[in-house]
Design a protein that fits this description.
Low-confidence stretches: 5-9
Number of domains: 1
Strand content: under 5%
Helix content: 55-70%
Distance between the termini: 43 Å
Radius of gyration: 17 Å
Order of helices and strands: HHHHHHEEHH
Shape: globular
Strand order of the largest sheet: 1-2
Length: 147
């Protein structure tokens, strides 16, 4: 797969981070960027773990992304080379948690990370106390409602 240049961030590894985030979360790069937290998350991870450790994770990710020719190969390569590898497994799990819950090691990254967590999109819900669903939203049946 080709890793496309994303936005105007000069750091090549940012593009790899976004591409592997897309594969780990199942959300497109555009959807991840629409949270407004992509660059913040990238910088946050760099401040939380050793740069060499994060770069190693991104290099492994880059190799997986570039060597996979289709989604099935990519899925299998991520499972074999990232998720099953003790050196990269923890970071991959933390990246997934970061995008879905907005937390890193149990703490929210900032006040927006809770509101923009992907978990709310998956649940077809809104974060209680943070983003209200809108006037008269109660009169619309929930998505996938059986009633």
């Amino acid at each position: 797969m080709i890793i496309n240049k994303i936005l105007n961030v000069d750091d090549y590894y940012y593009d790899v981070f976004m591409a592997i985030s897309e594969s780990l979360t199942g959300f497109s790069v555009n959807e991840l960027q629409s949270t407004g937290l992509a660059e913040i998350y990238y910088q946050y991870i760099l401040s939380q773990i050793e740069t060499a450790t994060f770069i190693e994770f991104l290099n492994v990710s880059k190799n997986v992304l570039e060597s996979s020719e289709n989604k099935e190969q990519l899925k299998n390569a991520i499972k074999a080379e990232i998720i099953s590898n003790p050196a990269t497994q923890g970071i991959a799990q933390s990246v997934i948690t970061l995008w879905y819950l907005g937390t890193w090691e149990g703490a929210y990254v900032n006040d927006r990370s809770y509101k923009e967590g992907l978990v709310w999109t998956v649940m077809h819900a809104h974060p209680p106390g943070a983003k209200q669903p809108g006037f008269k939203s109660w009169e619309t049946k929930p998505v996938n409602s059986n009633s």
